[in-house]
Design goal:
The protein is an alpha/beta fold. The protein has helices spanning about 1-30, 45-50, 55-65, 120-125, 145-160, 195-215, 220-230, 245-255, and strands at about 40-45, 70-75, 130-135, 170-175, 220. It has a five-stranded parallel β-sheet with strand order 2-1-3-4-5. Helix 3 packs parallel to helix 8 and helix 5 (about 145-160) packs parallel to helix 6.
Length: about 260
Amino acid sequence: MYSSTRYLHFFLAFIFCIFFTNCKNHEVNVTPIAKNNHIAFIGNNLCSRMFEYSHFETELHLRFPDSMLYIRNMCDPGNTPGFRPHPGRLDPWAFPGAQTFQTELAQPTGSEGHFESPDEWLTRHQVDIILAFFVYNESFDGDTGLENFRAELNAFIKHTMSQQYNGRNVPQLVLVSPIAFQDLSANMDLPDGKMINHHLETYTKAMETVCNQYNIPFIDIFNETSKWFESGAVLTIDGSQLSDIGYKKLSVLLADKNIW
């Protein structure tokens, strides 16, 4: 009898550990959608082209039809966590100290104007949730630039998590990896993407590691799109930029992720 009771206790403890672990992971990865949430997309060309292919915004509205979501796309090609130039801004830096991570570009631009800084823009729109699309531009610095990228991403997360753009609480930040590079070299004068994908994968892993340190939800679309491209379906226009069909698939992939 004693032996049976002891084994039962061990079994229950084992089940509890599994349940607790799964719950903990689920909590880290959940970004609850609430009515009237204000959502902002920031980042690079992958998201900027969603101005032309608005499938992801449409997918969110379809999945949360009663939530009255307020969505703004603030992405521009070339943007990184700290470097976000605009001809109407006095400087290209997204947060104080960001210039230390882009020394080659830390030159006076001579730009003039009154265009809002990234923080001012997010505050004016009272943003609750931020989806950040980074890595592609940074990956061209190769293995030698990896540590600098980690430092820039760390600084960006720390800065973002110290803000209250909606005036009430810290924003929910979600980071999205780049897509893989599709090999179209058999039919176009393009690289096969092997070295590009090596760097993209390395930087994607670095992004995931940093996200785990801060319990920030992370969406890995690099590995998912790598599988898409293995099928032979042409989903990009030049290896790096998705086509309309590619963005349709991406919208479902992003919406299916368990952050919602």
